[in-house]
Design a protein that fits this description.
Layout: H1 4-17, E1 21-22, H2 47-50, E2 60-68, E3 70-71, E4 74-75, E5 89-98, H3 103-117, E6 125-130, H4 142-148, E7 157-160, H5 162-165, E8 166-168, E9 173-184, H6 188-193, E10 207-220, E11 226-239, H7 240-247, H8 260-270, H9 279-300, H10 309-328, H11 339-347, H12 352-356, H13 358-389, E12 395-396, H14 398-408, H15 412-421, E13 425-426, H16 428-446, E14 448-450, E15 454-455, E16 464-465, E17 472-475, E18 477-485, E19 488-495, E20 497-498, E21 512-516, E22 519-529, E23 532-537, E24 548-552, H17 554-578, E25 584-589, E26 594-599, H18 606-621, E27 627-633, H19 634-639, E28 653-659, E29 664-667, E30 682-691, E31 694-701, H20 702-723, H21 729-764, E32 767-769, E33 772-778, H22 784-796, E34 801-809, E35 812-819, H23 821-826, H24 831-839, E36 845-848, E37 852-856, H25 862-873
Helix pairs in contact: 3-4, 9-10, 9-13, 10-13, 14-16, 17-18, 21-22
The structure holds serine.
Length: about 850
């Protein structure tokens, strides 16, 4: 049997022989395309090449790409696990032609590889082709039919419409008709009964698409019209797991050798053999095996689980796996992280990033699992309480299910499952409505309508960034468009040349102005969209033509570049102090401050922080000049000691920033101080945790740090003046604290005496009702603690007694009910229940234990009524 590793290699070798350049997979997490969170197709990394904005390094390329389809146009998350052939994360084998070969070769080579190369039976294969679309004004793809007819009989070439056979990456962008290859893997006898052609595109688990050949020739615009691209391209994508399923002759993608390790692990752990497990157990096993891959690759490419954006998607996938394992495989402690070891064995040759980051990925996953299991526990407790409070209702309120979902991360099917176990249902309609409302809120908060680019000086050249060397230059507007977000309308402008730095590598985008004669546009931000540098401006240029002077705000840039340099020095100082396991995990460099996230597994101790701060300041004093190297071949840069960051896409030529070749060498596209002395001074503001194994330092430099020191000194001066002491400040504060302690002791003694006095008085006021003693009184105490102490004191000195006290604390009524020990044991009276009735009189609520309960309220006049009510209750 061919192994999956061998099959992957054979694919790449085949196209290598057809003179394709084999390139590495792009990171699975997308950083500079606002229309995409994760790589969802092999072609993502070539979007600019298709649009004619960037020249490819080679016109023929092939690779295996890590893909994740859990958001946006291509989202398979909910299906995954329930059927036997969908995945969130999968590998896509692809070959590309950029303006080189087209349909003829693409189809012929696909056929050759599948049948001769991989030995798939030709009569099990079907090709679908684009049947045309009247709305887009497109004809049937006869060219594809022609090419296929060299290999397939007419009845196995099947036309489909736009939904199936016109491929688009998202709402806009490169697209074109496609031709999919489907395979019928059913046993011979089933094939005789039902013609495979009738099962194509009908979600049959054994008649599945394996390869999609897309003929990219259009760009879908925002108004949904199609624009011809300057050249025609081929983009093919073959689902690796499905191909292996076909070659290894398996029923499901989850049955291929790639998952053998994980199945064996789960068997050992749970005693379940996948093949013999129940349906729902099989679903759970598939969910676990699929999701762990998605999560592991995303984390290895820099996406840590979090509460927003892409991080939230990853967190949800991880929780889905964790909770399927919890409910159906009965694994109640963290275990997913252990699967990473098995993945490393499987992928070390193709995706080395996973091997290099194994420890880090495992720690993050383990800590996420722990966190989620804790939530599961507290959510389950809440669920039990809910059941107690609603003993009779058959339906669990939608709002409660939503609370579990929203606050405790409970997937709704988990709540449904728990409800079923106690023979109840969940009000799904109510839940759905709340979910919709929440979605709507976030949609309207982030909804952005982007118009089409309007060309002013059309060009196929990408804008040039000249901002390393100049902050001002004269240029022309290449194109602009309108962006509507919330209630604001803004405009985006692309210049032919620009001094504006677009946000990337943690450094914020430049701000400044664009001037043309009397007209000034304010540049509010600069962002990257793939390779485009996009300036966000406040208004539409009245006459976009002509020459514009682009000027970056020099003061903002100066502060930002100083902070960027400080970040590099800090990085080096961290490695020097804490060790070389420290690696950058993220950063934010603005004109105000800098933030640096790095891998380190414990708190950075105060002495270490002081040392780090000191080292950075020494480097500042050493006045180290900047050495900047542009267009360095990546290998040479690494040879200089520069470290590549995981999840970053580097070209063949990179920029290297050096501050002392023996100290700080980094691959960096950011702007920098010319000399470390520009930083003037460096001050760490805080150190804390971002995620398991990731720490964050925030710091200030130059004017920001100076300002910080001034403020601190001013505060200290003010405190000194208030203390009116001749002693040094810290001694004066110590004296004050001593005095405070002393006074507190005295106060406690006075209070104790008062409580003793009160207790005596109250004991004398005890009356008898219905066979028990009752003490009820509104008392004068100054805190809820005093009231509690008094109640407990009374309890100790009485028997067969109910004590109900009221008090006004900060003008708010407070009630307490306590039972003497013997009375509590009899269980005739329950303090918790009693307080709920009494609290109504003061318009409040409360609770507690059976023998002691308290309640706060709003209506102070009600205190007396509450006390009178007690007599009634007895
Ligand atoms: N872009 C196509 C797909 O993702 C082919 O690679 O299916």
């Amino acid at each position: 049997m061919k192994s999956s590793k061998g099959i992957r290699k054979q694919f790449l070798d085949f196209f290598r022989q057809k003179t394709h350049e084999i390139v590495p997979s792009a990171p699975i997490v997308v950083k500079d395309d606002p229309s995409l969170m994760f790589t969802n197709a092999g072609m993502n990394q070539f979007k600019d090449v298709f649009l004619g904005l960037k020249s490819p390094t080679s016109t023929r390329v092939a690779d295996t790409q890590k893909c994740l389809r859990v958001s946006g146009k291509h989202n398979d998350l909910e299906e995954v696990g329930h059927d036997t052939y969908h995945h969130t994360m999968f590998e896509m084998l692809g070959n590309w032609s950029f303006g080189d070969y087209y349909k003829k070769e693409a189809i012929a080579w696909a056929w050759e590889l599948l049948t001769e190369g991989f030995g798939l039976e030709p009569d099990r294969l079907y090709a679908t082709i684009f049947g045309g679309d009247p709305t887009d004004g497109l004809e049937k793809d006869d060219e594809a039919v022609n090419e296929w007819s060299n290999f397939l009989p007419e009845e196995r070439i099947l036309p489909y419409g736009r939904k199936d056979n016109f491929w688009e990456m998202g709402d806009t962008g490169p697209c074109g008709p496609c031709s999919e290859i489907h395979i019928d893997l059913r046993p011979e006898k089933d094939r005789k009964k039902v013609d495979g052609a009738t099962l194509v595109n009908s979600d049959h688990p054994q008649v599945v698409e394996i390869w999609n050949l897309v003929f990219i020739q259009f760009n879908r615009k925002a108004d949904s019209s199609l624009e011809e691209l300057p050249a025609k391209h081929v983009d093919t994508g073959m689902g690796f797991e499905r191909l292996v399923m076909a070659i290894q002759n398996r029923q499901s993608t989850y049955d291929i050798d790639l998952f053998d390790h994980m199945k064996a692990y789960l068997k050992e752990r749970t005693g379940l053999t996948y093949e013999k497990a129940s349906d729902i157990e099989q679903v759970a096993i598939r969910v676990v095996m699929d999701h762990i891959r998605a999560v592991a690759f995303a984390i290895a490419d820099g996406q840590i689980p979090s509460n927003t954006g892409a991080g939230y998607v990853i967190r949800r996938i991880l929780r889905r796996a964790s909770r399927y394992a919890f409910s159906y495989l009965h694994i109640h402690e963290p275990f997913l992280f252990e699967l990473i070891d098995l993945m490393v064995d499987e992928y070390q040759e193709v995706f080395p990033e996973l091997v290099q980051q194994k420890d880090f990925v495992q720690r993050i996953i383990q800590s996420e699992e722990k966190g989620f299991l804790r939530k599961l526990e507290s959510g389950t407790q809440l669920f039990q309480e809910y059941l107690k409070e609603h003993p009779k209702e058959k339906t669990i309120e939608g709002a409660f299910a939503f609370k579990l979902y929203d606050t405790f991360g409970f997937p709704i099917d988990l709540t449904e499952l728990m409800a079923r176990e106690v023979k109840k249902k969940v009000d799904m309609e109510g839940f759905q409505q709340l979910l919709e409302e929440q979605k709507e809120r976030s949609r309207s908060a982030t909804a952005v309508q982007t118009g089409d680019w309007v060309a002013v000086n059309p060009s196929s050249d990408l804008p040039r960034f000249l901002g390393y060397d100049m902050l001002e230059l004269d240029t022309r507007i290449q194109q602009y468009r309108t962006v509507k977000a919330k209630k604001k309308t803004l405009y985006q402008i692309v210049l032919e040349e620009t001094p504006f730095y677009a946000e990337s590598g943690g450094q914020v985008g430049d701000r400044g102005t664009l001037k043309n004669g009397a007209e000034t546009l304010r540049v509010l931000d600069t962002q990257k969209e793939n390779e485009l540098i996009v300036h966000l401006v406040d208004k539409l240029p009245s006459s976009p033509g002509g020459t514009w002077t682009a000027q970056v705000d020099p003061s903002l840039r100066r502060k930002t570049r100083i902070n960027h340099t400080a970040t590099h020095i800090l990085h080096a100082a961290l490695r020097e102090t804490l060790g070389t396991h420290v690696e950058q995990r993220g950063s934010l460099v603005s004109e105000k401050s800098l933030r640096f996230d790095f891998s380190h597994f414990s708190r950075v101790e105060p002495e270490e922080l002081t040392r780090i701060e000191q080292i950075v300041n020494e480097r500042i004093t050493a006045a180290i000049p900047l050495q900047e190297y542009r267009e360095v071949p990546i290998d040479k840069a690494k040879g200089m000691g520069a470290m590549a960051l995981f999840g970053e896409k580097y070209g063949d030529l990179v920029r290297v920033i050096v501050f002392d070749p023996d100290y700080s060498v980094e691959l960096c596209g950011g702007t920098h101080a010319r000399n470390t002395s520009e930083i003037q001074v460096f001050k760490i503001l805080s150190e804390g945790s971002v995620a398991a194994g990731v720490r964050r330092i925030e710091a200030l430099t130059a004017d920001g740090a100076l300002h910080f020191f001034q403020e601190k000194v001013a505060t200290l001066d003010r405190i000194g003046a208030q203390l009116k002491s001749n002693k040094p400040l810290d001694e004066a504060v110590e004296d004050l604290l001593e005095k405070h302690k002393e006074l507190e002791k005295q106060l406690q003694a006075v209070n104790a005496e008062k409580v003793g006095q009160l207790k005596k008085e109250l004991l004398e006021k005890s009356t008898k009702h219905n066979g028990i003693h009752l003490i009820k009184e509104v008392v004068l105490v100054s805190s809820s603690d005093d009231l509690k102490q008094l109640s407990y004191e009374l309890r100790k000195s009485t028997s067969n007694t109910l004590i109900v006290l009221g008090a006004l604390i900060n003008d708010k009524p407070l009630l307490s009910v306590i039972l003497s020990n013997d009375l509590a044991e009899k269980k005739t009276y329950n303090a918790g229940q009693m307080i709920r009735t009494l609290a109504k009189e003061i318009q409040g609520g409360g609770g507690g234990q059976d023998f002691y309960a308290t309640a706060g309220g709003k209506k102070k006049e009600g205190l007396k009524d509450a006390l009178d009510k007690v007599v009634e209750l007895i």
